[in-house]
């Protein structure tokens, strides 16, 4: 699989990253969308051992048009997980190693003067890919981190006053180094809020680690991984997810959970977070083969969607604690 960005097989508007119109993305059936997500998860598990829940969460965020923040120690398979997802959907993949001297233009791209044509030509940065791994994003200064903000929210990049759309589907999987904190920069809440989910992979169990060693002793399984779908079909699954019914009681439940965090923390969940929870709950319903969301879907998603957006009032409390309090206090009506 090339590291260069490529089209997902649509028409000219798709290749440019624009909206090709509703007729180009007819929704899949609920059953077909559920099968598709399951096939991608199964395929990724050929490379990633013992992390099915994490793989499912990443696929849920991807289908829900969201981005993912992975916080963990080095060497737990974060890069390989992102590559496996990109390969499984036949998508372009680029990795950006964030360092203290990384410039915004190193991420977004830059205009370069061509001596032959006597014109400036745009050289696209690594953000012009379907799946972008922003590795150790908290090692770069805030100015460089902010280069991702427009890309993540608007799915476009503006360089020298000209706006360019990014290819679709577009997903950022960022990793955050939680060791050597003295050499890192804290992510601003405005950036953290743009990640639909925050996950931890954790170390494998003993049997799982033995399986990993066995699979990688020789050729790595990523070298033989084949796509099970393409970007066009994934976008059809996104259309399906968008049509999953969110009843008024479920919407109200999400709103009351968000309100509880705002009333019981220094900084609670934003409306963007509530929207992310609604969208991921729709995809969670798809995984169960349903075309409607239940409170169980919301409860399955709320921890990974809400916790990282919360700033507790005391140092002894975490975002997870506030979410747990919301789940126990807010009743389902």
Automatic annotation (TrEMBL):
Top-rank taxon = Archaea
Q: Which GO terms describe its molecular function?
A: ATP binding; ATP hydrolysis activity
Entries under CDD domains matching the protein: AAA
Give every ChlI/MoxR AAA lid domain span: 259-322
Give the residue ranges for region: Disordered: 1-25
Q: Which residues form the signal peptide?
A: none
Q: Which SUPFAM superfamilies match?
A: P-loop containing nucleoside triphosphate hydrolases
Task: Please give the Gene3D superfamilies that the UniProt record associates with this protein.
Answer: Magnesium chelatase subunit I, C-Terminal domain (1.10.8.80), P-loop containing nucleotide triphosphate hydrolases (3.40.50.300)
- Entry keyword Signal: no
- Keywords, A to Z? ATP-binding, Nucleotide-binding
Domain ATPase AAA-3 intervals: 67-195
Name assigned to this protein? MoxR-like ATPase
Per the UniProt record, the source organism is Halolamina pelagica
């Amino acid at each position: 699989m090339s590291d260069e960005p490529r089209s997902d097989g649509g028409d000219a508007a798709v290749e440019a990253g624009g909206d090709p119109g509703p007729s180009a993305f007819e929704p899949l059936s609920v059953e077909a969308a559920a099968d598709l997500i399951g096939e991608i998860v199964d395929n990724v598990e050929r490379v990633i051992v013992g992390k099915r829940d994490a793989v499912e969460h990443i696929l849920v965020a991807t289908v829900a048009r969201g981005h993912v923040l992975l916080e963990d120690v080095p060497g737990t398979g974060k890069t390989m997980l992102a590559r496996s997802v990109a390969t499984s959907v036949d998508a372009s993949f680029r990795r950006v190693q964030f360092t203290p001297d990384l410039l915004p233009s190193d991420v977004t791209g830059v205009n370069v003067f061509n001596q032959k044509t006597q014109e400036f030509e745009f050289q696209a940065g690594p953000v012009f890919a379907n799946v972008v791994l922003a590795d150790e994003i908290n090692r770069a200064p805030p100015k460089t981190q902010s280069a991702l903000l427009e890309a993540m929210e608007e799915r476009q990049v503006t360089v020298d006053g000209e706006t360019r759309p990014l290819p679709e589907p577009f997903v950022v999987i960022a990793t955050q180094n939680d060791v050597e904190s003295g050499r890192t920069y804290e992510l601003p809440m405005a950036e953290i809020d743009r990640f639909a989910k925050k996950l931890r992979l954790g170390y494998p169990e003993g049997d799982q680690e033995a399986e990993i060693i066995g699979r990688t002793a020789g050729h790595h399984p990523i070298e033989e991984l084949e796509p099970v779908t393409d970007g066009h079909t994934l976008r059809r699954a996104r259309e399906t997810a968008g049509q999953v019914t969110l009843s008024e009681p479920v919407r109200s439940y999400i709103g009351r959970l968000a309100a509880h965090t705002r009333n019981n923390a220094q900084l609670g969940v934003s409306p963007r977070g509530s929207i992310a929870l609604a969208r991921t709950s729709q995809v969670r319903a798809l995984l169960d083969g349903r075309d409607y969301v239940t409170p169980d879907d919301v409860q399955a998603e709320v921890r990974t969607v809400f916790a990282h957006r919360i700033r507790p009032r005391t140092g002894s409390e975490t975002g997870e604690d506030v979410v747990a309090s919301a789940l126990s206090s807010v009743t389902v009506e």
